[in-house]
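We read letters as residues; the integers encode the fold. Take this protein.
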Amino acid sequence: METAQIAHSGTLESNDIMITLSVRPPGSGQQIEIQSIVMQQYGDAIRQTITDTLNYQGIIDIYVKAVDRGALDCTIKARLLTAAARAGFKLKEDNDL
């Protein structure tokens, strides 16, 4: 895997999410930071979508910053996968998209 230091995907438009990924040293684990206009209602669901997607792809040592503007789960997943691809991760095919 060739990795970039930082990769981005998404926008700060309404109903979208800006995902920023930064590869971390082996053994660091996943760190997820979320800012959302719907944090009170959907913060746990956003975090779960990000965590499930990272785990399915086998991405362990990563820092994720998500700035959400009310994105649906499918948008969160798509933006996360795009950022991961830009960071150099070889992604598994997912038939649920």
Notes: The helical segments are 39-57, 73-86.
